[in-house]
Amino acid sequence: MSDSLPARLSAMFISNRGTVGGFFLAGRKMVWWPIGASLFASNIGSGHFVGLAGTGAAAGIAIAGFEWNALIIVFALGWLFVPIYIRAGVVTMPEYLKKRFGGRRIQMYLSVLSLLLYIFTKISADMFSGAIFIQMAMGLNLYLAIIILLAVTGLYTITGGLAAVIYTDTLQTIIMLVGSFILTGFAFAKVGGYKAFMEKYMNAIPGNTSYGNIIIDPKCYTPRADSFHIFRDAITGDLPWPGLTFGLSILALWYWCTDQVIVQRCLSAKNMSHVKAGCIMCGYLKLLPMFVMVMPGMISRILYTDMVACVVPSECEKYCGTKVGCSNVAYPKMVVDLMPNGLRGLMLSVMLASLMSSLTSIFNSASTLFTMDIYTKIRSRASERELMLAGRLFILALIGISIAWIPVVQSAQSGQLFDYIQSITSYLGPPIAAVFLLAIFCKRVNEELYGLCWTLRNSEEKRIDLDADERIEGLESKDDESEEGDEGQGFLKKAYNWFCGFDQKKGPKLSKEEQEVMEKKMTDTSEVPFWRNVVNINGVILLAVAVFCHAFFA
């Protein structure tokens, strides 16, 4: 955690935090490599370390299909979806639907639904998984560990804006990869190499398989015969290949191409070539979870079979505090027991980095949704300072609700965290993906025809709406009240304004021509031909790698 502190502090200084565009879109000046790292870090939280390893320990490598499917979907994100969003001049995904369909209710509906998904599947799950690791490594109470994590994470999210989040994600991605590679090396050395790993996993059966007069079905504790195959039988498979191929693609389309957390990083890019290059970098990084998360989780089952593969409720409760299963402790247990003292601290930093990178991304994007799509409807003439303050206060509300939901996460889906996450998103994600696909590919579909909401009849409303350039850059004040100048402020007032990102002076009002030039710049999707060809070639290579990996482990 301390390793990434300099990045957080420097990001607070260099990021443009004093405008809505600076806080929510990093001024649209980001280059490809921090975008790619942030896309990966935003997706790979501590929930992946705990969830992927736990499901891998229970069922084998098929869960890695969720990660490798993204290699194809990020191509659609960079080449198809983001250019449309940029040309539309939007900041949030619900705002795009409002512009596309013409009504407001669908925008509000998607904003609220997205916030609920963040609370129930992202924030609470990440906090729970990170707290599991800290609880095992340091012996702290679960909720005390959560409070400490949130205090640190919330501080630099609230004060830093999107630029701080992206810069921090970049360093934390490096920490995650270095630490996870080291642990993977220790794990394979301990088990005796890849061939021994395959043999020993199939024999990793717990010693206690009955309690009282009850004999547990062998299917509950015996490794699956297809544990080392991604594509499994369409009828008997736990992850049938049609669902993994087609159903998961729909779910991934929602997550990677329409979710605010992911798309917001791409919208911060300085041009389309940087968007595409960032997506390609993220795609290559998504190859790694199979080898540094799923397989180490399977090795943990070999080394700690009675704990990780426990099936007797009383035994499970003794090992991990829950009766439904202990597969979630597969990765943390291996870190605590397998790593030497110095490297154990590094892995603690890895888990904290993955947790905080994911949480900060969600916090920033959730505050963007609330501020730009909900709060502006309540306070249509809110000043820029009020909008930024509302977004930061909303983060605190998200934290409280998520903590209250953690007990539900703890007991859900037989102790397999990743299954809990997917069970919720599988119900709510596909309808959202369908709406966006219809919005992009079917011009005749409107809000009234689609049957979700009604279209506003009166387009000439008397209320004042925010233009795209006003939302993005804060070019004009949305409050007629005069702001107090810096010259009239005391030292404490200036320090408070700097800390909260209110230190920017009110800029001059732009002329109509200047506003048109600025809007054209913010919606430009043109590329330099040379770099366009470079990223296109690399995109084709990424698709070829995706096909090869799926075929090799099919």
UniProtKB/TrEMBL annotation:
Pfam families: SSF (PF00474). The keyword DNA-binding does not apply. It catalyses: D-glucose(out) + Na(+)(out) = D-glucose(in) + Na(+)(in); D-galactose(out) + 2 Na(+)(out) = D-galactose(in) + 2 Na(+)(in); D-glucose(out) + 2 Na(+)(out) = D-glucose(in) + 2 Na(+)(in). The chain crosses the membrane at residues 39-64, 70-88, 109-136, 142-167, 174-193, 239-257, 278-299, 346-366, 387-408, 420-442, 530-553. Keywords: Cell membrane, Disulfide bond, Glycoprotein, Ion transport, Membrane, Metal-binding, Sodium, Sodium transport, Sugar transport, Symport, Transmembrane, Transmembrane helix, Transport. Electrogenic Na(+)-coupled sugar symporter that actively transports D-glucose at the plasma membrane, with a Na(+) to sugar coupling ratio of 1:1. Transporter activity is driven by a transmembrane Na(+) electrochemical gradient set by the Na(+)/K(+) pump. Unlike SLC5A1/SGLT1, requires the auxiliary protein PDZK1IP1/MAP17 for full transporter activity. Has a primary role in D-glucose reabsorption from glomerular filtrate across the brush border of the early proximal tubules of the kidney. This is Sodium/glucose cotransporter 1. It comes from Mauremys mutica.
